[in-house]
C-alpha cells in the first residue's frame, strides 16, 4: 500500500469507528455525560459563566466560515463546546431566570431524551416509527380530552382511526397556530360547484369564487406575533390579522370584536377565524372565550384558542375555570416545551372535530399513502422526532396532580410577587397577574404621585424617562448574570395608552422562591439608584415629578 | 396537620424532587442511560423486537385516553417504555434498514445531544441562547460557503451582521422548502406605488395589483411532496405547483420546463419559483441545475434547489460536480438529519443574497426587536432548540474529509448494489443510481423477456401483477424484521408510463455491507418464490409471460 492509500484507509476506519465504538468512559464527552446525569444543577452552575460577555466578543469564537478539512478529536470539540458555547449559554433552568417561558426540566426528561435520540424514530410515517405512532395518537387523545372532555366512546372511536387525527404534533406553538389557521382557511373556502377548493386553486380564485375582497383573522392586540406571521405565510397578508382592543386587563373587548366583524362583513371581508388567547405572552391574561365562541358562531368563523402558554391551567381544579369556553374552540394550541416541562422543540394543536385535519390532508407515493396510519398526512412538517414520548412520560410521571401543583404554585407565586411589588413604594405593578405572568417597573413614589396627577403631555414625558430607566436596569441586571427578567412594551389606559417599557416576569420554575423575588427587586432598586449610567435620567425624572406635583399643590392650583 | 394536608404536602415535595434530585445511579432509567452510552448497538439490538407486531395490537398498549390522576414511578414508566415502546420501535440504525433516509448516528451525537437538552436553549432570541446564536450563524455561514463558495470578505461582512441572515435553521426540509418559497413569494410581489407588498396586503391584492391570474412554482414530477404542501400553505393552491416531465433518468426536461413557463406566461400566471432537485427522494437523481438557473433568470423567477438529500454531496471532490449549478440558486434546502448524520429534527435553508431573508422579517415587542441579533426575526418557527450545536460538532469532528468518505462510500455502494441486481436474472433494476438511491424489483427472467416484447395492454397486465408481488414481498420482508426496503410507484417510459411499484433503497448507513445487500436480495427471492400468500400471483405472472413470449415466437409471428 502506498502512503496515500494507507492514510485514506486510516480515514475510512476512523469514520467507521465513530459509528461503532462508543466514547470511552474516561473521555471528556463521557465525563460530561455522567456529570450531567449525576448533577445537572451543578453542571450548569459550574460551567455557565454568570457575567455576560458581549456578544460581539463571543462571535470571535464562531468566526471561521470554512468547514474544517481535517477532523478534530471528539475530546477537542467537547472541550471547545464547554469553554466557548456552554460557558456563554443562558442558565434557563436557574430559579432566578424568570424573564422568559423556558424553565427548569424535571430530571427524568434527560435520560428519556437520550432514549428518544438513540432510537432516532421519524414520526412522519409508521415505517420509521411503529409504536411511536400509536403513542403519539394517544398523547393527542389525552390532550384532546383535557380540553374537550369527550366520553370514552369518542376516544375509542377516533383516537386510533387512521383516517382521522385528533390533532397535529409539531415543533412548537408557532407551527401549531399556523396549522390551525391553515385548516381554518381551507375550511372557509371549500370545494363547491365548479370550484375545487382553496387547497387546490388557491386564495385568489377562492375569494373571487366566493365573492370576497379578503379574509381576516381577528385577535386581541395582545395576540402572539406568530399569528401575524401566519397571516403572511397563508397569503392573507399581515394587515388581515386584525387587532382588536383590549380592556384594562388585557382581555379582548367583545363588543369591539363584534363591531369589527360587522365592519369587515360590510367590506366583504370573510371572517376566517377568531383567535382567543389563553395566557397572553406578555401579561398572562385569558380572553373571555365563552363570549368569543358565540361571536365566532354568529359569523361562521373558525374559533381558535392559542393556549400555548395557559393550556396546562386545565390541570388545576382551582384555576381551570379561568379557561371556561375553551371547549368550544375548533382548535387549540398547546406548547409542550412550556408548561408541560418538556425540552425545547415540541408543540401541538388539537381539533374538536376529528374530521377537521382532513382540510390539509396530503399524500405521497412512498409514504403517507392513502389509508395508511402515517401521521405525516396531516402535519405541516414532514420528518419529525419522537418528542411525544417525552410528553407521554410527563403525563404519566407527573400526572394531572403533579401538573396541578406546578400550575397552582406558579399562579400563587405570581400573586405573592404582585403583593410584594405593591408594598414597595418605589415599584409599580403594571399588570396584575391572572395566570403566572406579571409586569411592573421601578417607579419612585414621587413619580407615581406625579403620574396620578399628570396631564397627557406630562405623562408622556415621565413615561419616556421611565422607559429609558427600565431598559437600562433590565439590560444591566441581565449582564450582571445573577437574575433575569425580560422587558416588553405595553400601552396602559391609565397613561393615555402611551407605550411603557416594563419588566416582564414569568413564574413557572418551581424552584423560584420568595427570597429570590425579593433579591430581584433589591438588585433592580440598587441598579436604579446607584448605577452611574442612569443617574442623570433618575435626576431628570425626580425634577419632572417635582414640577408636576408643585403644579398640583393646593396653593399652586389656586394661583 | 390533617391527613389530607399531609398528603398534599407530600405531593408538593415529590414534585420538587423531580426537579432537584437526579435519578439514582441504580434506577431503571439510569441503567438504560448508561447502557446506551456504553453500547448503543447492543441496546437497540437487545430491546427492539425484530418481528413486527401488528399495529392494531400495539395500539392496545396506548389506548388510555385519560391523563392519569396519580403519578406513576419513573421506574415504572421507564419499564413501560422499554417493553411497549422501544420494543416496538423501528431499528433505523440497523445496517439492513435501507428503505428510508434515516440511518445510524455517530456515537458522539448522543452525549452531545444530552448537553444540548440539558442547556435547553431557545434560539428564537439571544436572551435565551447567547453563544448559541453566533454558533448557529456560523453553521449557516459554513453551509452557505459549501454551496456558494464566497470569499472570506463576504463571510466576515455578513455572517454575524444582525441585520441579515445567510439562512434559516428549522425543524426539517419541509419547513426549509416552505421558508424558501415564502421568501420567493414575498419577493415576487413587493411593495410598489400604492401597494404595500404581499406580506402586508396578501396574495389576492398582490395578483390584482400586478395583473396576474395566479402564481406558480415549477418542479419536476419527482419533486418532494412538501413543495405541493407549500403551494397550499402559501395560498397559491396545489394546482399551481406545476409538475414538469422528466427524462428517462428522472431529471427535469428543460425544454418542457421552458415551454411550460411560456405557456403560463401567456395565461398571465406569474412564474414565482423554479425548483431544482439535488437528489430526488425516490430515485436520487439531480436535475440539470445549470440550465434551470438560466431559465429561472429568463423568466425572472426565484431559483430554489431542494438539496435536502443530496446537498452533502458537495463534500465529495469526486461527486461534487453532479450538483453543478447549485451555486446559482437563490436558496438551497439542506436536511441535517439526513446526510449530515444529526439526530431527527433539523434542516436549514441558505440564501445566496444575505438580504433575501428580509422578505419575511417580523418583529415583536418583547423579543426579536428591530436591531437585535435574534435569529427568530427571519425564521418561520418561533422557539427552537439548539440543534445547530450538533451540526457544528459534525462539521468539526467529521470535517469535510469525513463527510466525503460517507458520501463516496454511499454512492459507490449503490453502484455495487446496482451491479449485483443486474447480474441476478430474476431482479430488474428500475432506476440506476446517480447518488446513493436506486429502485428495483423482483421480476423473473421470462417476465423480463416478455416485457421487452409486450404491447401496451400486455405491459399493463404484467406490471399490475408484478405490482401486487412487489407490494407483498416488501410488506412481508418488513414484517419479518431482518431487513427493510421501502416501496414507491414510478412510471417508467419503457413501460408506456404504466405505474410500477418498486423497491426503493437508500444507502447511507456506512455499516451496510455487500453481504447484507446479497442477503436482502436472497430473502426477497425466497419470499417471492416460496411464500404461500403470493404463489397464485407468481403462477399467473408466468402464464402471462409465457403467452406473450409464445405470441412473439418466430412461428407464432408467421401464423
From TrEMBL, chains A, B:
<keyword id="KW-0456">Lyase</keyword>
<dbReference type="InterPro" id="IPR015421">
    <property type="entry name" value="PyrdxlP-dep_Trfase_major"/>
</dbReference>
<dbReference type="GO" id="GO:0030170">
    <property type="term" value="F:pyridoxal phosphate binding"/>
</dbReference>
<protein>
    <submittedName>
        <fullName>Pyridoxal-dependent decarboxylase</fullName>
    </submittedName>
</protein>
<feature type="modified residue" description="N6-(pyridoxal phosphate)lysine">
    <location>
        <position position="338"/>
    </location>
</feature>
<comment type="similarity">
    <text>Belongs to the group II decarboxylase family.</text>
</comment>
<dbReference type="GO" id="GO:0005737">
    <property type="term" value="C:cytoplasm"/>
</dbReference>
<keyword id="KW-0210">Decarboxylase</keyword>
<dbReference type="InterPro" id="IPR015424">
    <property type="entry name" value="PyrdxlP-dep_Trfase"/>
</dbReference>
<keyword id="KW-0663">Pyridoxal phosphate</keyword>
<dbReference type="GO" id="GO:0019752">
    <property type="term" value="P:carboxylic acid metabolic process"/>
</dbReference>
<dbReference type="Pfam" id="PF00282">
    <property type="entry name" value="Pyridoxal_deC"/>
</dbReference>
<dbReference type="InterPro" id="IPR015422">
    <property type="entry name" value="PyrdxlP-dep_Trfase_small"/>
</dbReference>
<dbReference type="InterPro" id="IPR022517">
    <property type="entry name" value="Asp_decarboxylase_pyridox"/>
</dbReference>
<dbReference type="GO" id="GO:0016831">
    <property type="term" value="F:carboxy-lyase activity"/>
</dbReference>
<dbReference type="InterPro" id="IPR002129">
    <property type="entry name" value="PyrdxlP-dep_de-COase"/>
</dbReference>
Amino acid at each position: 500500500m502506498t502512503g496515500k492509500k494507507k492514510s485514506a484507509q486510516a480515514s475510512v476506519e476512523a469514520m467507521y469507528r465513530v459509528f461503532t465504538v462508543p466514547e470511552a468512559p474516561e473521555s471528556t464527552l463521557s465525563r460530561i455525560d455522567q456529570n450531567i446525569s449525576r448533577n445537572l444543577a451543578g453542571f450548569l452552575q459550574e460551567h455557565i459563566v454568570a457575567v455576560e460577555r458581549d456578544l460581539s466578543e463571543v462571535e470571535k469564537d464562531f468566526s471561521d466560515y470554512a468547514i474544517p478539512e481535517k477532523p478534530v478529536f471528539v475530546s477537542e470539540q467537547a472541550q471547545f463546546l464547554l469553554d466557548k458555547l456552554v460557558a456563554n449559554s443562558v442558565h434557563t433552568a436557574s430559579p432566578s431566570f424568570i424573564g422568559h417561558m423556558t424553565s427548569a426540566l424535571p430530571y427524568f426528561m434527560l435520560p428519556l431524551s437520550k432514549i428518544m435520540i438513540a432510537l432516532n424514530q421519524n414520526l412522519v410515517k409508521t415505517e420509521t416509527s411503529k409504536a411511536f405512532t400509536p403513542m403519539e395518537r394517544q398523547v393527542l387523545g389525552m390532550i384532546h380530552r383535557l380540553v374537550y372532555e369527550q366520553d370514552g366512546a369518542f376516544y375509542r372511536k377516533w383516537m386510533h382511526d387512521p383516517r382521522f387525527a385528533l390533532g397535529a404534533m409539531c415543533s412548537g406553538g408557532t407551527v401549531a397556530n399556523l396549522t390551525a389557521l391553515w385548516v381554518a382557511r381551507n375550511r372557509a373556502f371549500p370545494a363547491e360547484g365548479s370550484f375545487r377548493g382553496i387547497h387546490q386553486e388557491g386564495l385568489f380564485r377562492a375569494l373571487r369564487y366566493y365573492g370576497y375582497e379578503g379574509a381576516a383573522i381577528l385577535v386581541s392586540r395582545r395576540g402572539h406575533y406568530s399569528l401575524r406571521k401566519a397571516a403572511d405565510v397563508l397569503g392573507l397578508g399581515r394587515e388581515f390579522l386584525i387587532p382588536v382592543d383590549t380592556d384594562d386587563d388585557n382581555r379582548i373587548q367583545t363588543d369591539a370584536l363584534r363591531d369589527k366583524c360587522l365592519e369587515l362583513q360590510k367590506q366583504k371581508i370573510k371572517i376566517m377565524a377568531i383567535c382567543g388567547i389563553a395566557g397572553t405572552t406578555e401579561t398572562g391574561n385569558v380572553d373571555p372565550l365563552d363570549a368569543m365562541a358565540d361571536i365566532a358562531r354568529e359569523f361562521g368563523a373558525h374559533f381558535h384558542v392559542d393556549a400555548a402558554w395557559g393550556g396546562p391551567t386545565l390541570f388545576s381544579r382551582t384555576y381551570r375555570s379561568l379557561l371556561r369556553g375553551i371547549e368550544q374552540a375548533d382548535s387549540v394550541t398547546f406548547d409542550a416545551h412550556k408548561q408541560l416541562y418538556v425540552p425545547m422543540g415540541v408543540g401541538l394543536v388539537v381539533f374538536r372535530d376529528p374530521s377537521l385535519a382532513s382540510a390539509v390532508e396530503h399524500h405521497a407515493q412512498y409514504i403517507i399513502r392513502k389509508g395508511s396510519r402515517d401521521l405525516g398526512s396531516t402535519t405541516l412538517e414532514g420528518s419529525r422526532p419522537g418528542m411525544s414520548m417525552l410528553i407521554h412520560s410527563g403525563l404519566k410521571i407527573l400526572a394531572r396532580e403533579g401538573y396541578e401543583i406546578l400550575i397552582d404554585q406558579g399562579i400563587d407565586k405570581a400573586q405573592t410577587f404582585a403583593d410584594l411589588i405593591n408594598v414597595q413604594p418605589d415599584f409599580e405593578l403594571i399588570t396584575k397577574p391572572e395566570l403566572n405572568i406579571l409586569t411592573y417597573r421601578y417607579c419612585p413614589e414621587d413619580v407615581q404621585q406625579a403620574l396620578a396627577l399628570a396631564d397627557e403631555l406630562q405623562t408622556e414625558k415621565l413615561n419616556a424617562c421611565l422607559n429609558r430607566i427600565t431598559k437600562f436596569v433590565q439590560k444591566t441586571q441581565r449582564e450582571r448574570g445573577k437574575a433575569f427578567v425580560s422587558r416588553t412594551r405595553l400601552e396602559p389606559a391609565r397613561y393615555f395608552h402611551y407605550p411603557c417599557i416594563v419588566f416582564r416576569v414569568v413564574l413557572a420554575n418551581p424552584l423560584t422562591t420568595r427570597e429570590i423575588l425579593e433579591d430581584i427587586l433589591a438588585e433592580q432598586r440598587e441598579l436604579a439608584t446607584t448605577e452611574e449610567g442612569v443617574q442623570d435620567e433618575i435626576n431628570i425624572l425626580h425634577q419632572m415629578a417635582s414640577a408636576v406635583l408643585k403644579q398640583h399643590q393646593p396653593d399652586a392650583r389656586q394661583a
